[in-house]
Specification:
binds zinc ion; globular; five-stranded mixed beta sheet; three-stranded antiparallel beta sheet; 315 residues
Length: 315
């Protein structure tokens, strides 16, 4: 790769990533030891320079492929240089970006930008490892503001009840590392909350929560998740080191992102926004380059999941 300093701002990134550099950068992530066949894994590979493609030399395979094969970029009509700028924006803009903003910035149709965002969010899915130690847990409502909706939608939402367009999001945050995991949940019953906690948090971790009865099960003797609670209703937000302020921080970031870029809240789409917000929150103390680099590594490694998304049509 060209020995330039790694970009730290959007304008540096735009100058740095011409189509060739973007491809070289992608290659350095995907094939640190040189190209390898996505079908049979062989490293005996010839290149077809004119078409920026490779061909496997293995008898009975002979697959042709490019550096984009098996990444979220496969089959794209947009140049890689546009992709990297879009990804830079998505991970480095505090409140996220809308497909309109991306379309205007990189010069493509809004529909293509929407599709791009969809793929990027898909690769920003949360890790499945469980948090441990002291872990804050809290839930909040996220969703549209009724007065900003058009008349028909407002009427529809109001007829279903005041909270019907709000979605509940549950978050857990590891005190030591500051890492967050979050989920869209259907209701706040003890059973549902217990389910997300056991999926996201190692047993015998210490839960810090508010006084919500949804965590009542954790207060029982011999609970797998010993719990301390602060009572917000009694104006108690911090007692000793017990609080859920870290979760509140995350919820504020999520709300700002949803408000800024999310036009019509529908619970089935909110999950992807939550993943995106969690990614940004967890890398918030990194440099712009490191955030971008982390996202690009996920984009390249998302082969299986992407194949699932497209119904297995990866080849
Ligand atoms: Zn092969």
């Amino acid at each position: 790769m060209v020995a330039l300093k790694k970009p730290q701002t959007l304008i540096q990134a735009v100058r740095y990533f011409d189509p060739e550099t973007a491809e070289l950068y992608l290659k350095s992530i995907k094939w640190p030891d040189g190209p390898c066949c996505p079908q049979c894994g062989s490293v005996s590979v010839g290149s077809i320079k004119s078409r920026r493609r490779y061909q496997c030399r293995e008898k009975g395979c002979r697959k042709q492929f490019s550096v984009l094969t098996g990444t979220i970029f496969e089959g794209t009509h947009l140049g890689l240089d546009k992709w990297v700028v879009a990804i830079w924006m998505i991970v480095n803009c505090r409140n996220g970006v809308s497909s309109c903003e991306i379309a205007r910035t990189i010069g493509c149709k809004q529909q293509s930008a929407w599709h791009l965002l969809h793929r990027v969010r898909h690769c920003l899915q949360q890790a499945s490892d469980r948090l441990s130690g002291t872990v804050e847990a809290d839930a909040t409502y996220v969703g549209g503001i009724v007065k900003n909706m058009n008349k028909t939608r407002r009427r529809e939402v109001r007829s279903r009840g005041a909270w019907s367009n709000k979605t509940t999001v549950h978050a857990v945050r590891e005190r030591a590392s500051g890492q967050v995991r979050a989920d869209v949940i259907g209701d706040e019953t003890g059973e549902t909350i217990r389910g997300v906690i056991s999926r996201r948090v190692e047993p015998r971790s210490y839960l810090h929560t508010d006084a919500s009865p949804s965590y009542g099960w954790a207060s029982r003797p011999f609970s797998e998740y010993p719990r301390s609670a602060v009572n917000h209703a009694r104006d108690e937000y911090v007692r000793d080191n017990v609080h859920v302020n870290g979760c509140e921080n995350f919820f504020n970031c999520l709300r700002r992102a949803v408000k800024g870029t999310y036009v019509r809240p529908a619970p089935e789409h909110l999950g992807a926004y939550v993943d995106e917000a969690v990614f940004r929150f967890n890398v918030r103390n990194e440099t712009e380059w490191d955030r971008f680099d982390a996202a690009m590594r996920l984009a390249v490694g998302k082969r299986l999941t992407y194949s699932k998304l497209t119904g297995g049509a990866i080849r």
